[in-house]
Design brief:
Chain lengths: 385, 389
């Protein structure tokens, strides 16, 4: 207890400097937490996947469609317990800035495959019955203030023309990982309208979503599906929903790597600032440490003092930074809206923040402590005179 | 007013080498990140802007915005071909290329992870329309065959795209017979093959884009008006250079905003570091300050001396950061451009403007960090200073 009070007193002897250092720490730890959360948010689509869902797409790339008649053949594959499909719509709501994902889906079978989208029975029924109806996630509805019954106009970039949908339901996610920033509407409506406008066959599907009986069978069933369509006009590539989502994330890997690197650079910068503070502290107290040594305290006591002081500063500053992370993350999530479907500070992030504080505290004290443990008593005392 | 010589300022920094280096090091890191971000968005912009030729016009379906979303039927293509004002080559062919553009998901050489590569169907004329594209290995694909040529960045980055290798897609084997260099433009990230073969293989009846050259540069407005007035044509025509500049916008802006907000957060840390250092410098030299004042130096001279010290400190940090960042020019990176959804290889690019911005940024950190300590130093009373020491 005595030692702790001494450390605290020491730490605040040079109040202005200590407070400045702590401000730096608050900013660094906060930024570190925020960046880690951004990376987590990037992977949110991956976290929200189910292990009993497979995604079947055209093997050339996602931009190539699959024929509608594959649905029946997929249903007959052994181990498949449900099939649905969706098309990426790529519409623009008012201006390009309001980006959110829209999918044309086969409503009844799609909702059956996604039990995590929680809708009341009336909403579900109203959506399935209205061919121009759509449903959206809670977050998206709140972002634009939509209420059930609202008309939502979209300008198509892939499917030309203006499309208007009536909002029939708002789903809540079963847990925090569920995406609540999408919009779903009827595939039938999309394809029939396109057929009328472009006067050509549009019985094509973007991707098939397939439910399987047993997660362990995923590789086997994927293999069976792809074999089915081998050497056909549209060869397929089937993978678990997780692998499918990871494919998207890895496309922007360069940016993720950069953000990740930056989050550690912040810690290094604050280490330099802290080390600076500690080396100044040590230099100023040269005489004091020499006196302690002369009184018979061991060099290790001096070292303990320095490390202790450094850790006290790091933990107080870092702790404040951690507390600040939560409200700032909440504000950030609000500001970016639907850009990140899920934005939550995870426990791992908080643990890493604590670890970062400890590392900063220890590293910053290392060099001054090493130097102080080796000072010559006579030399040190000479400074007093 | 007599100023305190700069050599005194510089010597002070040198005396406390470790502290100086730690502070400057922190600042160098901040400036490094700041500079690299600017270089990155500049690199993306430079790559895509250079991809377009000033005298080429590019045509897309109305409102589609990107090549892969676009579709121009054969009938519309025929109308465009007959528009007045399109240049003709010496042998009488129209300088116009009808191109299907598709994305192909290929695994990367480094880790096997797939990413989208743009596959473009083109022709002899398409090559002529892009004079920056040169075959550096192998030869051009023969029209009417399943031969393709690969951009330099693709050939290096993706499996099965090297010279002599084979790719299998759309029920065919495609042999890579040549590697082309387009002088660090977006085409380096593409695969090119015969337009008609691509249309047949992918069973498409609509082209993605049409590129043509104008016989007369000034005719551009007339051609655009002609297109807008023709009810059969639902298309957007714009200079190729403008199209590619627009393609870079989202990614470059995203990187710039992300980078600048990070730099601001970082700089708080660095400013705090500078402030701590300067406060300590002032505290250590109270006696000196008193002596200088007693010798007749004015308050402002003291203020300027300490401010100069801080600015010099940040300049050292800034230059170290800039120097480190300049090495990034040797690194090639590639990422998915989410506007086109396809892979884009580019380089970090330094420009005089970036150098000026980075130096100003580091100096402003030094100024903000050093002003309060310097001001405090200049306000001290001579008597107090001399007594304290």
């Amino acid at each position: 207890m005595f030692l702790f009070r001494l450390l605290l007193k020491n730490a605040f002897r040079h109040r202005l400097r200590t407070i400045l250092t702590m401000v730096g720490l608050v900013v660094a730890i906060c930024a570190f937490g925020l960046l880690r959360t951004i990376i987590d948010a990037w992977y949110a689509g991956v976290e929200g996947t189910s292990s009993v869902r497979l995604v079947t797409r055209n093997s050339i790339s996602l931009t190539f469609p699959l024929p509608l008649n594959y649905a029946e053949r997929l249903r007959n594959v052994e181990g498949v317990t449900g099939v649905s499909w969706s098309n990426w719509f790529g519409g623009v709501y008012i201006t390009e800035r309001n980006f959110f994902p829209q999918f044309a889906v086969e409503p009844a079978s799609y909702l059956a495959l996604y039990p995590e989208y929680i809708l009341s029975d009336e909403e579900k029924k109203a959506f399935i019955l209205d061919r121009q109806g759509c449903i959206v996630g809670r977050k998206l509805a709140e972002q634009y203030g939509w209420k059930i019954g609202d008309q939502i106009p979209l300008r198509g970039t892939i499917y030309p023309g203006t499309w208007t949908f009536t909002l029939r339901g708002i789903w809540d996610g079963a847990d925090a990982k569920t995406d609540e920033s999408q919009m779903l509407f009827h595939w039938q409506y999309l394809t029939e309208t396109t057929k009328k406008r472009l006067k050509r066959s549009t019985d094509f599907v973007g991707v098939y979503i397939v439910r399987i009986n047993e997660p362990d069978n995923a590789p086997l069933i994927s293999e069976r599906i792809d074999q089915q369509f081998k050497n056909s006009l549209a060869e397929t590539l089937t993978e678990t929903e997780k692998a499918f989502q990871l494919g998207f994330v890895s496309m922007s890997e360069a940016i993720l790597v950069a953000v990740n690197a930056v989050s550690y650079v912040i810690i290094i910068i604050i280490m330099a600032v802290m080390a600076n503070t500690m080396s100044m502290t040590a230099r100023e107290r040269l005489a004091e440490y020499a006196t302690l040594k002369a009184l018979g305290f061991s060099p290790s006591f001096v070292v303990k003092l320095l490390f202790g002081e450094s850790l006290v500063i790091a933990l107080i500053g870092g702790g404040a930074g951690m507390l600040l992370t939560l409200p700032i993350a909440a504000g950030f999530a609000k500001a970016v809206g639907t850009l990140f479907p899920v934005f939550v500070v995870s426990e791992t992030t908080m643990a890493l923040q604590v670890l970062a504080c400890l590392v900063v505290g220890v590293v910053a004290a290392a060099w001054p402590a090493w130097k102080m443990s080796r000072i010559d008593i006579v030399n040190g005392l000479m400074h007093v005179a | 007013m007599k100023a305190i010589p700069l050599s005194y300022v510089a010597r002070n920094l040198w005396v406390r080498r470790v502290t100086t280096l730690l502070t400057a090091g922190g600042m160098a890191l901040v400036v490094f990140v700041f500079t690299v971000v600017l270089m990155m968005s500049e690199g993306i912009r430079a790559t895509l802007v250079a991809t377009g030729q000033a005298d080429n016009i590019l045509v897309l379906r109305k409102g589609s915005g990107a090549e892969i979303n676009s579709g121009i039927g054969r009938d519309q293509a025929a109308i465009i071909e007959s528009l007045p004002g399109i240049a003709t080559a010496r042998d009488g062919r129209v300088m116009l290329s009808k191109e299907p553009v598709v994305l192909n998901n290929l695994p990367k050489r480094s880790n096997g992870k797939p990413s989208n590569v743009t596959v473009r169907g083109t022709s002899e004329i398409g090559l002529e329309l892009r004079p920056q594209v040169k075959i550096i290995e192998g030869r051009m694909f023969r029209p009417g065959t399943s031969e393709i040529i690969a951009g330099k960045a693709v050939a290096q980055g993706f499996r099965g795209t090297g010279l002599g290798e084979t790719l299998h897609f759309a029920q065919r084997d495609w042999v890579v017979v040549g590697i082309f260099d387009s002088g660090k433009t977006g085409f380096d990230s593409e695969l090119w093959g015969d337009s008609d073969q691509m249309m047949a293989a992918f069973r498409r009846n609509a082209y993605s884009t049409i590129v043509f050259r104008l016989s007369d540069q000034s005719a551009i407005e007339a051609v655009k008006r002609g297109i807008d007035l023709d009810p059969r044509l639902q298309i957007d025509a714009k200079p190729e250079i403008q199209f590619y500049a627009e393609q870079s916008e989202a990614l470059a802006t995203f990187i710039r905003i992300l980078g600048l907000s990070l730099s601001i957060i970082f700089s708080i840390g660095a400013i705090v570091g500078a402030m701590i250092t300067m406060f300590a410098a002032v505290a250590q030299r109270v006696g000196e300050i008193g002596t200088l004042r007693a010798l007749g130096f004015r308050r402002n001279a003291i203020l300027i001396a300490f401010l100069m010290e801080s600015l010099l400190l940040s300049l050292v940090g800034g230059l170290i950061g800039l120097f480190a960042a300049s090495w990034m020019q040797t690194v090639d990176i590639s990422t998915t451009n989410f506007q086109t959804f396809s892979e884009l290889a580019f380089q970090f690019k330094m420009s005089p403007e970036i150098i000026v911005k980075s130096v100003l940024f580091s100096l402003s950190m030094g100024f903000i960090g050093g002003f309060i300590p310097a001001w405090r130093a200049s306000r001290k009373k001579i008597v107090d200073c001399l007594r304290e020491s």
